[in-house]
Structures are given as C-alpha cells and as structure tokens.
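Try it yourself: sequence plus adenine, in.
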Amino acid sequence: MVKHDVKDIGLAKKGKLRIEWAAQEMPVLKSIAQRFAKEQPLKGMKVVACLHVTTETASLMETLKIGGAQISLCASNPLSTQDDVAASLVKNSGISVFAIKGEDTKTYYRHIKDALALKPQITMDDGADVVSYLHKDAKALLSGVIGGTEETTTGVIRLKAMAESGALKYPIIAVNDAFTKHLFDNRYGTGQSTMDGIIRSTNRLIAGSVFVVAGYGWCGRGVAMRAKGHGARVIITEIDPLKALEATMDGFELMPIREAARIGDIFVTATGDINVISKSCFPLMKDGAIVCNTGHFNVEIDIDGLASMSKARRIIRDFVEEFTLRSGKRIYLLGEGRLINLAAAEGHPSAVMDMSFANQALCSEFMVRNAKKLGKKVYGVPEKIDKEIARLKLKAMGISIDTLTPEQKKYLQSWEMGT
Ligand code: ADE
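Structure, out:
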C-alpha cells in the first residue's frame, strides 16, 4: 500500500461509495478526467495537495492521477478530513494521504511534512499552509517546485503578501479569483454548507432568530442570503463602506459588531481577519448566544479571550462547546471556531466543487505548460479556462444560451451607431 497516515483503513468501502455519490454531481471534472486520460498532461509530475479531504477532493485527486500525476495529499484544516474518504483514496485509488479528522496542530504540521517528502513540482493549497511551510521550514525543496495553485481567499491574500514582499519563490495561480470559483463556491457553497453545519450541530430553528453575519464578501453574502431564506432577521457587520452599502441595499440591517453582540442569537464570522468577535463582545451577548466561524482560519473569534472569562466549559453535544461566563451567562462555540461547514457538515456540495476543482485541474495543466514563462507572482485564472468551465457546466446542466449574431458582433465593435 502507498505511504499514508489515516484514521482507519477499514473505512475505505464507505468512503468509496460516498465518493461515487459525490462524483455524480461533478460532470465538468469528469469530462476533464476523460481528456486527461488520453492526453496525460501531468505525466511524471509530482503534486503535493493540501486540501480539505472530502469526497469532492477525492474526485480531483483521481483526476490528477488519471492525468499522469503522482500525488501526496494532506489536510488543509485539522477538523475537515472525512476519514472514510482518506481511507478510500489510499486503499482504492493508490494515493498517499496524511490526514486524520481532529488531529492536533503538531500532527497537522507533521502531515504536511510527510506529504512534502514526495518532493513536489506542483503544490496545490487551500489556505497557503504548504507554500508557507516550504518557504519557512523546507527551503531545500523549493528549487524543485515549478508552480502552484491556491484555492481560497485567505490563501490568496497570504500569497499576494508574500509576492509583494519578494518572498515568494515560484508562480501561483489564484484559483479563487476565477468567476467560476468564487461566484459559486464562496457564495452558494458557503451559504448552503454553513447553514448545514449550524443546523446539524445545534438543531436550532433559524426562523425568527436574530442572525448576525460578520463580513459581506462572497461568503458572507451567501450565508446572509440563506439565513434570510430560513426566516431569520439578518444583521450584517462590515468594515468596508462599499460592501456595507451593498448589504443595506440587499435589504439587510447594518451595525457595528458590539451593537449586534447585544441582540444576536447566532453569530457567523466570514471575514478572513482576526478577533472579529473580540473578548469585549462576549459580556454583551445574550445568555445562550451561539458563535461560529466559516472563514478559513480559527482566528476570527477570540476563543482564548472567551476561555479566560469563563468559569466553566464543557462539550454539550458534538461540535458544541458551552462556556459559562463568571456572570453565569452561557455562550456556545461551534466546531472549535474552525470552519463550521467542514467541521460539522460536509463542506460545499459537489455541484459547486465541480467548478472549483475543474479550475484546479485545468490550472495545474496550465502551470505545467507555462511555468517557465511565469514570474514569482500570483496570477489570475486565464479567462479562457474560466469561460470553458462555465460552458461545460451549462452543457452538463442541459442549458443552452444564445450566441451573438454577426450583426450584433459588428455593433459591439463599432462606435458610429447611436440612436
Ligand atoms: N471547501 C469547502 N467545501 C469543500 C469540499 N466539499 N471539498 C473540498 N474543499 C472544500
């Protein structure tokens, strides 16, 4: 068997069936896999992927393997691994996986190191932990890397900071910046899966609740939209005046977080920044307030601050921790403040990951073909790839659209014609 560290290889059968179920909703990735099988664009390439180990990631890994790559996979979050999927990838697909749901921070980084033992030419990140590890702790491997891809907003922000300071040593394609990624995955994926995580972990009624969403980026919009659909009174907190204005005109109430703290029943952070729900917010909250995060890192809620002002804490049900403040007030933290959609549910549905991971597959092919021409920068996804994925997705959904007539094309290219 290939090298691995997974929870229980005996879970492989269950994982295989769930991967098959998810793959039914991933026709774009399937069509890419069919082409990759013939063309072998990744032949001989060693890929280290640091992604949430889910049924959808399994389809991506299998597609890269079909395209000729050798892969080592580790988790991009200690709580997001689906152990049955990890087992199936090892046993049924012959792919090295180093990931266990609930692993501690030390094991998380050891798994990144284990995956990197492959000596990658391509890195595939969700949050930039592999790039960061390579640049800080495994510099000797950098010379072998031709390029990488990054899945998420937070990772892209980190990588752009690295590129700007001159630290980045190889080109990266920001998959997150593709329209076929963030418009669908961040909005509809996060929207649905975050509600799913909150509902699965709490079984609380959303209708009639005061639901506070911190951040009105694409993820925050998705969550707000779905919470509203459930019948909640939705409040948005923002620091960007444009996004705040947009949220207002989308029909949401806007206010500072400390004001929202007093009235919210459920709080979700989706900002990518640190201490958005800070220590000073907790004493203002109602008894029984629920707080969770759907941003990439577990930094958005000041958990240490919450712990320091609590006289007791206990796990009251799976993914729900009760903190009792000295005043007697209870605050409930979901999923250890890690992304609730992957910690307590299964992440984004396959139909959106189909497009995100089609971008990953096509961008790794692009990287193999073009790495030599690229600088040590963060690049957007080529428009041709983005449009092609949208076209394939529509085709798979059986939706046809119009094309411009020659007369319309001419009109768009001319400036003489007015009223
Ligand atoms: N990120 C969010 N949802 C995901 C999923 N289902 N698989 C992999 N990465 C994800």
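One thing you can check immediately is this: The domain at 9-181+348-396 is CATH 3.40.50.1480 (Rossmann fold).
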